[in-house]
TrEMBL record:
Cleaved signal peptide residues: none
Cellular localisation: Plastid
Organism of this sequence: Proboscia inermis
Domain Plastid lipid-associated protein/fibrillin conserved span(s) in chain numbering: 2-193
Protein name: Plastid lipid-associated protein/fibrillin conserved domain-containing protein
Keyword Plastid in annotation: yes
Alphabetical list of Pfam families matching this protein: PAP_fibrillin
GO cellular component: plastid
Keywords on record: Plastid
Length: 204
């Protein structure tokens, strides 16, 4: 985006933050009784990112090997959030849609905890990557011939902490309604604007 476009979006986000209709966005996070709520937790659901200023995410699109197809955040109360990044080979972006597509999905699995009304703490637990499609051939999730590749992150308790209160990771909800979520992460910084998605299936 151009500097002018970024500035305009920043202004819109500030205006939205001032009229955030959801003052308790973290309701149900870290609460094992959330299934008994008359209404589901407000932030629950699958969110598809449409805008960000986070350099760690923007750098993904700068890779000479691959580029981003889609990014999701699947928030599953009471204590799970999964960040999903779908990557495609960079040359594929220049080809007609559907021409021998290849798609690789990366996941970062975190546990979540309510910090305050609009702040959600994160503990990074595991990262995984696997192909979903190779040259137009879809790879079943239960395919045994392609093993999952993953790595477990160190447990916070091993680093001297005990829960997400001790973890440096969290995000603040700036705006939330039924269709849009705007959050700001503390480290490495950046704002994310996402819209509600039905699911994370790239083939639907």
């Amino acid at each position: 985006a151009t500097p002018a476009a970024r500035s305009k979006v920043d202004d819109i986000i500030q205006q939205l933050s001032a009229i955030n209709p959801t003052t308790n966005a973290s309701l149900g996070i870290g609460d094992s009784t959330f299934n008994s709520f008359e209404e589901r937790p407000p932030i629950q659901g699958c969110w598809r990112m449409v805008w960000t200023t986070a350099l760690d995410v923007l750098s993904l699109a700068a890779s000479p090997i691959s580029t981003v197809s889609a990014i999701y955040q699947d928030i599953q109360p009471p204590n799970r959030a999964i960040n999903i990044i779908d990557l495609i080979p960079r040359p594929q972006a220049a080809l007609p849609p559907g021409f021998l597509p290849t798609l690789v999905r990366a996941k970062v699995i975190t546990s979540t905890q309510r910090r305050n009304d609009n702040r959600i703490g994160l503990i990074f637990e595991r990262a995984e990557i696997r192909p979903l499609q190779i040259l137009g051939v879809e790879i079943p999730l239960d395919a045994k011939f392609i093993p999952d590749v993953g790595i477990d992150f160190p447990n916070v308790s091993m680093l001297g902490g005990s829960n997400s209160e001790d973890s440096p990771g969290y995000f603040d909800v700036l705006y939330l309604d039924e269709d849009m979520l705007v959050i700001a992460q503390n480290e490495p910084g950046g704002v994310f604007v996402s819209v509600k998605a039905d699911n994370t299936d790239p083939f639907l």
